[in-house]
Structures are given as C-alpha cells and as structure tokens.
Design a protein that fits this description.
The complex is a heterodimer of chains A (274) and B (253). Chain A has 274 residues and is mainly α. Chain A contains 13 helices and no strands. Classes of the chains: A mainly alpha (274), B alpha/beta (253).
C-alpha cells in the first residue's frame, strides 16, 4: 500500500491517475449514449479515421491530436452525410471512412522524413506519458460533457430512445445528433493517449456492458459506467506499472476481467436464489 | 364539431417513389377513423405525413391544431426494446416540451400526470421496470400513456394490436372508444373485422384514399375502393369482444 502512495509523489503517475479518472468520466457518459443508441460501429469508424489526422500531424509537424480531432469530427459528419444524403448504406459508409482515414494516416507517416516518434503510443495508448497540457484538455472535456448531459438529460434520452417521436414533439433532433457526434469525436480523440486508437472502443463499451448488468436506466448506467471505467483504469494502471506491461492493453484486460467476474457472480447468485 | 386537420390532393412518399397520390381527408374532433389497406398501401406514410415526419410531395396539409396536440403511438417494432429506459421515463417523454433544460424545470405536474395515466391503464406497478421487461400488451399500454401525456386533440395509432394478446386487444379498443369522447382518433389496423366494431368510419388506403362514411363495409365495397382486403370472419374475434359488443355483433348480421 505504501508503495502505491509513494507513486503519487511522481508527477507522471499523478498525471496518469488523473487521466484514468477523466477518461472514465468522458468515456463512461458518452459510451452509455453510444451503446444505448447502438452506434458502436460508427464510433469505431470515427476512431480509426482519426489515424489519418495523426499521420497528417506528423507530416505537417503539428500536434497529431489536433489532426486527429479534425479527422474524427469530419468523418463523423461524413458518415452521417453519406448515409443520409448520399444514399450509401450506413455500414458501408462507416467502412469507407474507417479505411480511408487509416490509409491517409499510413501514407502520411510513410512520407514523413525520419522516424515517427510515439507512433505506437497513439495506436496502443500510453497513459504514463500523458502530459499536463493533455490533462487540462481532458478536464475541460469532462466538464463540458457533464454540463451537457446534465442540462439536456431528458432531451438526449428522448431523442436516443425514439427519434421519430422526439421529432413529433418538436425537439431539435438534428442539432442534437450533430452536437453529440462532435462530443463523441472529441471524447475519442482526447482518450487516444490513454488506451490508443486500436483499443479505445473498449472504454466506450465494456464498462457500459458491466453497468448494464446492474441497471436498465439510462442515467444510472452512466454513473455505474464511470465507476467501472475508473476502477478498471486505475487497477490496470497499477498492474501495468508493477508488471511492466503495456498500460492500454492492461486496462482493457482488467475491464474484461471485471465484466467476467460480475457476470459470473450474477449468474451464481441468481441460480442460488431459485 | 371542430375541424382538426385538412388534407387536400396530397401526394407523399419516399425518394422517387410516390406512395400516396391525390389523397384528401378531413378530420373532425369527434372522429374515430379506422385506416385499413394492404401492406405497402401507404397507411404508415399517411400518418407520418400528418405527423410531419415526411414532407408532402404536392398538395395541401393544414393542421388546424398545435402539432404538440397530436398523440402518437408508433408501431412497436420501431422501438428498441433493449434501450435502457424505465417505463416512467417513457411515459414522461410524451411531454417533451419541458425536456430542454429539464434540470431547471419544476416538473411535479408532469410527474403527477404520468402517474395518473399509469394508474388509469392499470400499470402503476410497472413504473420502474425497464421497457425490455414488458409483455407486448404492457408495452402498448405504456406507449398509449406516452401518447396521452399532452392531452392530445388527435390520437394517432399505428397497428397497436400487433404482438398483443386477444384480451388486451379488446380492452384497448374499448379504452379508445372511451377516449374518443375527448379526442379524435385515427387508428391503423390490418384487421378490418375487429376494428369495425369500434370505429365510426373507415378509410381505405391503397395509394388513394376512400373515406367510407360508416363502420360497416362489405368486401364488394372494399374492392370498389381498390382496397382488396379479406374481411376476417367473426369467428376469429375474441369472445370478450363479442360479449361486450353484442349489439354491434347483431347489427352486423
């Protein structure tokens, strides 16, 4: 225990701890929306498309996360535009943006002279190297998400549950769809540093699946998801530090184990009551 | 008798595909119209146009009441049954004008209204269940509560009897008959035989619309309306309905 407390005297560990807390807040809340609305695949498309921006960032010598932000928002809008106006099937539209983004990223990284530093950390995450500047950005996002989902809780819930009905009640459905798409994109981009492009989908879905074992209420599911996401991120962070294994992968692994344990406990306790 | 809605020479449909052509229909405050017609004939397109979910291609649609005063019960298969939402929240979503900035609203009245509707439908005990735990009949009751949250002047129902047991079907139509004292009702159904006991008039929709001025309709008339439907024999109608509606039953024979 004292070694854990000792760890908090290191700046990099405090940053990693804060990153796991802030990631849990943004991913727990936004992920509940994603899972409830069944747009996990769209989120996967946005995530992978953002790699194009990371490559572009390397090539142009700007912060790769800025490029990733631009690419993820554009691909989010692009997916919606393609499938609503361009008459492309939605899943095909997602696949097009998904692979286009990856392809652009690979070409840019290849064209960038010399070695692309930290490329692996964008793909697989590296919570121990999150900078203080990134922590501030994650904090800002967490606050925006909490405010947005608190102020507009019922509007978001009603639109997500039954879009047509929400339209008949004159709720601003189109506006909210776009705003939420932007929030999803930002959540993905700012959490790339924590678990990486390849693994981020798990932060948006596994805590929610665990939460769903306890509740079928949208609001509670958000709270529980944040809790489970934080638990898994913190345990994963410690295990990866002491065992010296990659943090992103360890966090995901911890999440799945927590889900498995809870599920098993539920099944056992259910069968013993019958 | 107040006119709620005027439809004149309306054509509507989806991209490059006209589903309804030159449809005209007036709806008055005491109407109870059963909308029948073959699958793909345009029944759902008609109500989606009325609700403003589909823009008309041509013609006129004049809503003489506030759009918020239309209650809507969609087809149950349009609903994601695994969505994490409680019965109480589904019912409250019927009054969505208080949804924006909901955290700042005093919504005691809204909650009381939702409670009283749940009580009226006899499903108060389901209040905190998630919708995924409900049977088909229970779910329809919940969606009927939602449609009634705004005290609608016009209630629009799209196939409310799918996936429900016969008992509930009879109960539902009786309830609608009662509600008809307060509001106009537009009811889509594939089952001409059953609804004809309850509705006042029948609208046959198959690309065109023929508003038949009574609730008694023969297969020959249906054919002449270009609405070739089989009238299901009365033997298929649940007993509860038969018993409760002997006078209609005799009237029809």
């Amino acid at each position: 225990m004292s070694t854990i407390i000792e760890l908090f005297s290191y700046d990099f560990f405090v940053n990693a701890f804060l990153a796991s807390l802030l990631a849990a807040i943004s991913c727990g809340i936004v992920g509940t929306y994603i899972v409830s609305r069944r747009i996990v695949f769209i989120s996967g498309g946005i995530t992978h498309a953002s790699f194009g921006g990371i490559g572009m960032g390397y090539y142009l010598g700007i912060n790769p996360l800025v490029g990733a932000g631009i690419f993820s928002i554009l691909s989010g809008m692009g997916i919606q535009l393609f499938s609503s106006k361009g008459k492309v099937r939605e899943d095909s539209s997602i696949a097009i943006w998904w692979s286009l983004g990856m392809a652009i990223g690979i070409i840019f990284v290849y064209l960038t002279p010399g070695y692309a530093p930290n490329l692996m950390s964008y793909l697989f995450g590296s919570i121990l190297t999150v900078s203080t500047g990134e922590i501030w950005l994650m904090l800002a996002l967490a606050i925006i998400i909490i405010l947005f989902f608190t102020l507009f809780y019922r509007t978001i819930l009603y639109i997500a549950f039954d879009e047509d009905f929400a339209k008949t009640s004159d709720l601003p459905v189109g506006l909210f769809n776009y705003l939420l798409m932007i929030l999803i994109s930002l959540t993905i981009v700012l959490n790339i540093r924590v678990v990486g492009i390849i693994l981020i989908l798990s932060l948006l879905t596994i805590p929610q699946a665990t939460a769903n074992l306890f509740t079928r209420d949208f609001g509670r599911m958000m709270f529980y998801s944040v809790g489970f996401a934080f638990l898994a991120s913190f345990i994963g962070l410690l295990v990866s530090y002491f065992a010296d294994i990659p943090s992103g992968a360890t966090i995901i692994f911890t999440q799945v184990i927590i889900f498995g344990l809870v599920k098993m406990f539920k099944v056992v306790s259910l069968s013993s009551t019958i | 008798m107040k006119k709620l809605l005027e439809i004149k020479d309306l054509s509507a449909g989806y991209e490059n595909q006209v589903v309804l052509e030159n449809v005209s229909l007036d709806i008055f405050s005491n109407d109870f119209i059963g909308v029948i017609g073959p699958n793909g004939g345009g029944k759902t397109t008609l109500i989606k146009t009325i609700l403003g979910l589909i823009k008309p291609i041509s013609g006129e649609l004049n809503l003489l009441i506030n759009k918020k005063n239309i209650g809507y019960l969609p087809q149950v298969n349009q609903i994601d049954k695994r969505f994490p939402i409680t019965v109480f929240d589904v019912v409250r979503s019927g009054k969505a004008d208080t949804a924006l900035f909901s955290s700042f609203h005093r919504n005691r009245q809204e909650k009381e209204k939702a409670e009283s509707l749940l009580h009226e439908m006899g499903i108060s005990q389901l209040r905190n269940k998630s919708i995924g735990e409900l049977s088909g009949g229970q779910m329809q009751r919940v969606f009927l509560c939602r449609a009634l949250m705004n005290e609608p002047e016009l209630l629009v129902l799209d196939e409310p009897s799918t996936y429900v047991d016969n008992n509930f079907e009879g109960e539902l139509y009786l309830k609608l008959k009662e509600l008809n004292d307060r509001m106009a009702i537009l009811l889509i159904s594939h089952d001409v035989g059953t609804i004809s006991f309850f509705v006042k008039t029948i609208a046959c929709v198959n690309r065109n619309l023929h508003h038949h001025p009574s609730n008694v309709i023969s297969e020959e008339q249906l054919a002449s309306y270009n609405c070739p439907l089989q009238i299901i024999t009365h033997g298929n109608i649940p007993h509860t309905v038969l018993k409760l509606h002997d006078e209609h039953y005799e009237h029809n024979h």
